[in-house]
Design brief:
Blueprint: H1 9-31, H2 35-51, H3 53-69, H4 74-80, H5 84-98, E1 107-112, E2 118-125, E3 128-133, H6 138-149, E4 153-157, H7 163-179, E5 187-189, H8 195-202, E6 210-214, H9 217-226, E7 239-243, H10 249-261, E8 270-276, H11 282-291, E9 295-298, H12 300-303, E10 310-311, E11 325-331, H13 333-344, E12 349-353, H14 357-366, E13 371-374, E14 393-395, E15 403-405, E16 411-418
Parallel strand pairs: 3-4, 3-6, 4-5, 7-8, 7-12, 8-11, 9-10, 9-11, 12-13
Antiparallel strand pairs: 1-2, 2-16, 14-15
Helix pairs in contact: 1-8, 2-5, 2-7, 3-7, 5-6, 6-7, 10-11
Length: 425
């Protein structure tokens, strides 16, 4: 089928089933592929992506032009945009994943039972992973690399805004993987942007083993509401930074600015700043943000810091802006900060800037988020920065995997039991 074809809704279920069956067959091959062969194939995929750079950048230019015509925000266009440096970063990330320790076949633990049986838990691939994502074309490469390295096949469904970029990246990667001896169906990209295809993936129980949604609140809500396949959820990044009253002012200013403005459109960006009521220089925290045209929305005490801070609505405290907009609240110490975070955090990443180690330790222990930081920018909430290589997403739930999900999070395990004729009495 042509990648530009748009199958009728009635055929989408069959399309997804066909792709899933092919992916499952490829996954069985991947599951038994030696680690060195997967490493070599991924390095060839990175090389193929570099060779295809002119085609990928031309495809991305088409997507950027359409995004500008359709009025996408600057932050969303930034997430979408590729240039030579970013494309090289994508290729380098594939190579980084290629040389990571292969989790498949690792023995998690082993025990000998009193009856002489020996039990092992062995790490194995999950199977066929469905990735549903928006905006960022780098996810096409990151997800493919992580799944292949962990022995999983993957079925990708990218957003319409990045359709040409995704197809160009996918084409190059598959060429490299096939050159390395892996099946082409190990990494598949849905050839349609029909929204019914998303529903078909979500209903594909028994064919797709796990769904990973990467996108906005509406996408994740749809996935969670409709899925009949296990979901590894990546929810909003409503991330807080709390500046304690004894925080070093220079450190606090640098962290706050970076956490918000380094890249406003990523899930690790700070969306709410909490300032201790007795912090000595609150204006020093907000002035650099205002000077760089960041819109601040605050409570009454925050607005008293600077007249340029607008009034925050109730919805602002629960909003992931992904833009140069920030909510600001003044809190009465650690207890008040913890209470605010408990009410409004999405469980992604929350940070404290503080000199008092006891205060920091309590914050780290009591904030129930996937990532909790002390004296560091929330923009470090990234699998690459955690030494995991590329990430499939930041899981904010409680089951299976949490935080940046990389190779280990894409595996499960099975029990191996070795006996010598034991029968159960």
């Amino acid at each position: 089928m042509s990648t530009s074809a748009q199958p009728a809704a009635a055929s989408v279920q069959d399309l997804v089933a066909s792709l899933a069956c092919a992916g499952r067959a490829a996954g069985r091959v991947l599951a038994r592929t030696p680690s060195a062969d997967k490493e070599r194939a991924l390095k060839l995929a990175a090389a193929a992506l570099r060779r295809a750079a002119p085609d990928v950048l031309a495809a991305n230019a088409r997507d950027i032009s359409a995004a500008e015509t359709n009025g996408l925000s600057g932050a969303m266009i930034d997430r979408l945009r590729l240039d030579e440096k970013r494309l090289e970063g994508i290729a380098a990330a594939i190579e980084d994943v290629a040389v990571l320790a292969d989790p498949v076949g690792a023995v998690i633990d082993e025990q000998a039972r009193p009856n002489g049986m020996v039990l092992q838990r062995l790490r194995i691939p999950i199977g066929l992973i469905g990735i549903i994502y928006e905006s960022r074309p780098n996810v096409t490469a990151d997800a493919a690399a992580l799944c292949v390295r962990s022995g999983n096949a993957v079925l990708l469904r990218g957003g319409s805004e990045a359709v040409h970029s995704n197809r160009a990246i996918h084409k190059a990667m598959v060429e490299g993987l096939v050159e390395g001896g892996l099946p082409a169906d190990a990494v598949q990209l849905l050839p349609t942007q029909d929204r019914a295809a998303v529903g078909a993936m979500l209903q594909a129980a028994g064919l797709i083993d796990m769904i990973v949604p990467r996108g906005g609140k509406s996408l994740v809500a749809r996935v969670q509401a409709e899925a009949r396949v296990p979901v590894l959820a990546h929810l909003d990044g409503i991330n807080h930074t709390y500046v304690h009253h004894d925080a070093d002012p220079a450190m606090a200013q640098a962290i706050v600015r970076n956490a918000k403005l380094r890249r406003t459109g990523i899930c690790g960006a700070m969306e709410t700043l909490l300032i201790d009521a007795t912090y000595p220089d609150p204006h020093g925290l907000v002035e650099p943000l205002l000077a760089e045209a960041c819109e601040l929305r605050g409570d009454a005490r925050a607005r008293a810091i600077d007249p340029r801070i607008g009034a925050a609505s109730d919805e602002d405290w629960d909003t992931e802006y992904l833009d140069a907009i920030l909510s600001v609240a003044v809190v009465d110490g650690l207890e008040d900060a913890l209470a605010h975070i408990a009410r409004h955090s999405s469980g992604h990443t929350d940070a404290i800037v503080a000199a008092d180690q006891a205060v920091a330790d309590r914050f780290l222990a009591e904030v129930d988020s996937a990532i909790v930081m002390h004296n560091a920018s929330s923009q470090f909430a990234d699998g690459g920065e955690f030494g995991l290589g590329a990430e499939i997403g930041v899981a904010t739930g409680r089951l299976h995997a949490r935080g940046p999900v990389a190779l280990e999070g894409l595996t499960t395990y099975k029990w191996l039991v070795r006996g010598s004729g034991q029968v159960r009495p």
